[in-house]
Amino acid sequence: RLAVAPGVVHWPGYLGPEAQAALVADLRAVAAQAPFFQPRMPKTGKPFSVRMTNCGTLGWVSDETGYRYQPLHPVTGEPWPPMPDVLTQAWRDLASYPHEPEACLVNFYAADARMGLHQDRDEQEFDAPVLSLSLGDTAVFRIGGTQRGGKTVSLKLASGDALLFGGEARLAYHGIDRILAGSSALLPQGGRINLTLRRVTKPP
Ligand code: MD3
Ligand code: FE
After folding, report:
1. Which residues does a 6 A CB cutoff place in the pocket of ligand 1?
2. What does the pLDDT look like over 118-128, one tens digit per residue?
3. pTM, to two decimals
4. What CA–CA distance (Å, rounded) separates 33 from 72?
5. I want to staple 131 with a disulfide (CB 3.0 to 4.6 A). Which of 93, 115, 117, 197 is the partner?
């Protein structure tokens, strides 16, 4: 368990090789029920390079009309599949937050995909942390402060790593600069999957 910055904790190799393979199998089942879709930027409609799906009771989506959480897949109109148990267990183990996660956003990065610096502000509950799990190729992740244009630090996220963002890091700017293609053999087609577990609504 490594303290990266105030509010940021990194567990390199939190999931071992067998747990990673089992989780990939779970995610194949999730994607069979809720296919990856290509989100688009608000207003411009420019497609993201990252493809996404979700599991849990709520999923994050983005299109010309904006960013939001919703209970139904934007293409199929079906509910998101339930969260695999291993994800709920990881949240209970690491999040130090006394309510269940509602959303797990599944991001798929091909070798050339990126995610620009942004804040995650679409949740109602900023008191809950965000838990990230990485699978497949290593990513170069960057995190700054709560103001755009401040100093940033870079961190490599490898397959099996867990990263928790809470407290003052919850509203930090962050993004993915690049994927190190060929750095993992976990995904037969290559690329990277990142899972983010979140509480969206204020707990009752
Ligand atoms: C810091 N995902 O889905 S995970 C995202 O690797 C997102 O796919 C990246 O940024 C990815 O919104 C980064 C690490 C992460 C996730 C959420 C955060 C860092 C965060 C929320 C607040 C602060
Ligand atoms: Fe984010």
Report:
1. 105, 107, 115, 120, 130, 132, 139, 163, 165, 169-170, 172, 174, 176, 194, 196
2. 999 999 999 99
3. 0.98
4. 12
5. 197
